[in-house]
Amino acid sequence: MNTEKNSYIFIYSTIMVVVIAAALTYVSQSLKEPQENNIRIEKMQNILASVNIVSTPKNAEEIYKKFITSSLVVNSKGEKIENAIAFDINLADELKKEKIEERLFPVYICTPNEGDSLQLYIVPLRGKGLWGPIWGYMSFQPDFNTIAGCVFDHKGETPGLGAEINTAVFQKQFFGKQIFDTVNKFTSVGIMKGGAKDDDIHAVDAISGGTITSKGLEAMVKDCLSSYQEYFSKNKAQKL
Questions:
Q1: Residue 202 lies in a domain
Q2: Is the confidence at residue 1, as pLDDT, over 60?
Q3: In the chain, is it the N or the C terminus that has fewer CB atoms within a 10 Å radius of its CB?
């Protein structure tokens, strides 16, 4: 075959494109399952971290099965949705639904002490920071009001500034804060530039130099928790 002909170049290029495409497809498919498993394990770790339980990629699944004793899915009215699996719910996808009535919201229930009746309730959070999405999980005491723990993360916030939302120092401020006031009105938790008052159980300090990320996280917490407001209120009433 004359390798200088245009037909040869065309055939050679076509074969190379097909071979490379096939190779990339094979690699992509080969990595898909491990990647999905890594995402699943990381999700378990984050849920556990929101109740202050430390885990590693190696033991996360075992610890998750031990401490996350049940889960459920609710709608915006606080009604339980039957035959729905909480772990399969992607909050980012749910928030894209135009009508809140169509959205599904997962709840994870943790029993931190074996043989104890104490249960903590965990919900996911999703919002927007300065440079991209931010997310996390927040857990509540049995009163469905007092925050037991939380974990936040981000995709591309500025190191040393907005990225501080994923540090223990920032997250620990939320422990013990409350999202309902004394007359059971939903208030969420504010993030105060310049610092929250020491006796304010509904506010924490903003990140120095990370005002936009702080406000984004404040909006995320308020918007996402408001979707659980009916569920929380119903369960609060049952415990009174």
A1: yes
A2: no
A3: C
131 domain-assigned = yes
Calpha distance 165→156 (Å, rounded): 11
Write out pLDDT tens, residues 37-88: 999 999 999 999 999 999 999 999 999 999 999 999 999 999 999 999 999 9
- DSSP, collapsed to helix, strand or coil, labels residue 110 as strand
| CA distance linking residue 6 with residue 198, whole number of Å | 78
In terms of phi and psi (left: phi > 0; alpha: psi -120 to 50; beta: otherwise), the region of 131 is alpha
Segment among 14-18, 61-65, 148-152 with least mean pLDDT: 14-18
pLDDT digits (tens, 9 = 90+) for 121-148: 999 999 999 899 999 999 999 999 999 9
- List residues bridging with 147 in a β-sheet: 140
* Residue in 229, 187, 236 with CA at minimum distance from that of residue 78: 229
Question: How many domains are contained in the chain?
Answer: 1
DSSP state of 158: P
Does 16 reside within a domain? Answer: no
Say if residues 8 and 15 touch (Cβ distance below 8 Å): no
Residue written as token pair 């004394």: 182
- The Cα 106–Cα 163 span in angstroms is 26
SS3 label, residue 205: strand
Domain assignment present for residue 63? The answer is no
Pairing mode of beta strands 133-140, 120-128 = antiparallel
Residue 27: exposure state from Cβ atoms within 10 A (0-12, 13-18, ≥19): exposed
Range of the domain at 222: 69-239
